[in-house]
Design a protein that fits this description.
The complex is a heterodimer. Among the domains of chain A are: about 10-95, no CATH class; about 155-195. Chain A is about 90% helix and about 0% strand. Chain A contains four helices and no strands. Chain A has helices spanning about 1-20, 25-30, 45-180, 185-195. Chain A is mainly alpha-helical. By secondary structure, chain B is of the alpha+beta class. Chain B folds into two domains: about 5-105, Orthogonal Bundle (Peroxidase, domain 1), CATH 1.10.520; about 115-185, 3-Layer(aba) Sandwich (Glutaredoxin). Chain B is about 60% helix and about 15% strand. Chains A and B meet through α3 and α4 of A and α6, β3, β4 and α7 of B.
Chain lengths: ~200, ~190
């Protein structure tokens, strides 16, 4: 309503200006005849009526042709602004939605990366423990094998030494027996062995 | 060639019996013992010389060639042994000689009532030792014992007595070898 009243006032002012421009002689004549009293503020009918008629004519012309065009431009402008506002609101909503989605994805990515890091850390710990255990086991095996090898070599060396000592001792004894015993001593030994020997029947 | 075990056993018995009778007829107990000893030597030779053993039974040779091989190789042996071995070679049965030897030894005990004691020493026996060994063998075996003496310096000393495969080994070389084995097998002495 306020917009409508403003429009009517504007139209009236515009009509007065237009009437003055069309009839300037009438305006000056009225000023010349002015006198004191109430007539000073009352309009002169001779001037007022043509001005009113001109105003009405002008008003009709503007109401018929000018104002609809002006109103259409304003409405068009208003709809354009309204569309722009609506689009901007939609864009803002969309941007907020995208932002929320991005934030959600970012949070998920952070959580996922944290999980990956935690998994990698746990896997790394497990691998480290396995490698350590395997290394300890291999080291223990190597030590055991080395001990066994040393023990075997030691036993072999001792056995070889014993064999050498035994061979040498027996060879010396054989040489002494073969060289030092007389036939009489041999026969005495044979006699003793025959007497001490077991039976031919195995008893 | 007969493969039946009973047939082979009979053939072995025939060879041994013929050999024993021939040796006994030719020279009595002494010849029988000589043949026994020579047969043992031939068996040892055949075991040591595989080519000789295979040649005596080789079917690629004719029977005459195998007989000639026996007569040429064992010309110094007793005639009875040489002839029987030649027949065995002719028939491709020279490899039966060890079984003939075993049967021959049994015949020796059965028919002559004696047991042969093979005595090996490093020095010659005197009469006292012969008497001692003979009395021991006769006491153990219950029959007349005949000693067959052999000198072998490699036994170092002592005596080895063998009656049909039953050994009494009282040689010094055997005792030293036993001592050697005991010394080698003892392991606790070297432990730290």
């Amino acid at each position: 309503m306020k917009t409508r009243a403003n429009k009517v006032a504007a139209k009236a002012a515009f009509g007065a200006l237009a009437l003055n421009a069309a009839f300037p002689a009438l305006a000056f004549a009225a000023e010349a005849e002015e006198e004191g009293g109430i007539s000073a503020i009352l309009p002169d009918m001779a001037e007022f009526i043509p001005m009113l008629i001109a105003f009405i004519i002008l008003w009709i012309i503007l109401a018929k042709f000018g104002w609809p065009m002006f109103a259409g431009m304003l409405e068009k402008r208003e709809s354009t602004i309204r569309e722009a506002l609506k689009k901007s609101e939609e864009a803002q909503i969309e941007s907020e939605r995208v932002l929320a989605e991005y934030q959600k994805q970012l949070a998920e990515a952070k959580a996922q990366s944290a999980q990956i890091v935690a998994d990698a850390r746990s896997v790394g710990e497990a691998v480290k423990a396995d490698i350590t255990a395997q290394a300890q086991s291999e080291a223990a095996d190597m030590i055991a094998k080395a001990k066994a090898a040393i023990e075997a070599e030691k036993k072999q060396a001792v056995a070889e030494l014993q064999a050498t000592v035994a061979d040498t001792s027996v060879d010396v004894a054989a040489r002494l027996i073969g060289e030092d015993l007389t036939e009489g001593e041999h026969r005495a030994i044979i006699e003793r062995y025959v007497k001490e020997a077991g039976s031919f029947n195995g008893n | 060639m007969a493969t039946n075990r009973l047939v082979v056993k009979e053939e072995v018995a025939v060879y041994a019996s013929v050999l024993f009778d021939a040796a006994n007829t030719a020279g009595g107990q002494e010849a029988v013992l000589e043949v026994r000893e020579q047969m043992g030597e031939i068996i040892r030779l055949m075991r040591a010389d595989l080519q000789l053993t295979m040649s005596l039974s080789n079917p690629d040779f004719t029977p005459a060639q195998r007989k000639e091989l026996v007569e040429g190789t064992f010309a110094d042996c007793h005639l009875a042994l040489r002839e029987v071995l030649a027949v065995m070679a002719e028939r491709g049965q020279a490899d039966l000689l060890p079984r003939v030897y075993d049967t021959y030894r049994e015949l020796l005990g059965d028919k002559l009532g004696i047991c042969v004691v093979d005595v090996t020493t490093a020095v010659p026996l005197d009469d006292g030792l012969r008497q001692l060994i003979t009395e021991k063998a006769e006491a153990d075996l219950g029959r007349k014992a005949v000693l067959r003496e052999r000198i072998d310096k490699s036994i170092l000393g002592g005596i080895i007595m063998d009656v049909d495969g039953n050994y009494i080994d009282a040689s010094m070389i055997s005792q030293l070898n036993r001592a050697r084995n005991v010394l080698k097998d003892t392991t606790d002495g070297g432990e730290c």
